[in-house]
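hey so i finally got around to running the thing on that chain from the lab meeting. sorry it took forever, my laptop kept dying and i had to restart like 3 times. anyway pasting the input first so we r on the same page abt which one it is
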Amino acid sequence: MDTIQRLATKKGNSSLGTKLSEQHRQTISGYWENLSNCLKEIPIEGLKIYQDGMPTDGDAAKQIIEEAVKNGSENYRIVAELLGRGAEIMLTEDFQLVKREKELLLGFSGSSNAIKKLGVYLKYWFRKKSLMKKRDEFIANRINKTLDGDEKGILFIGVTHNLISRLPQDLNVIPLKDFRRIAGYQKSVLRAAISSYASNDFYSLCEYLTEPIKLDSKLCPN
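ok and heres what got predicted. didnt touch it at all, straight out
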């Protein structure tokens, strides 16, 4: 998934133009830096990490994380930092579901023929909702089964997921950023890439994403 993300970003940046591309780069860099800084304050003992796209745990998961860090993933770099402090990585996703979605995405990004690409995209579009629902149900079930009592977990999840409503009602969920505003930023970047013009929303959302993250007292009681 990291490879696809970098490819999409590279193409998007070439469409954005130099000024907007640099603004986009600084925004993403600032977002991950602030997230990394705030998570350094979280008590690590007993902390469980649930990672979008992670179909295994233990040493196999650590190998996936190490490889992703080498390939430039900021998400996995932060996960690696948390593991280095003593957190535990959890099997989060069903391997077959993740594999199915990855195959569809690779088919879309790897097709050079416009008609074939449209066909692959439509195939993905029709299957995406069903696949995402199954993935969300699996992730929610994993969290419900593996996060006990007063234990704390961190979930790294993409904004296209609809997971929160599927989690147990007695689980206290504290988003570190507003999903809707992150999704709004993604849409504003796509619009800017198409038109080479950034709306006011683009710049206001850039500011929001790079704001320092203030942790809830329930996460950091001290």
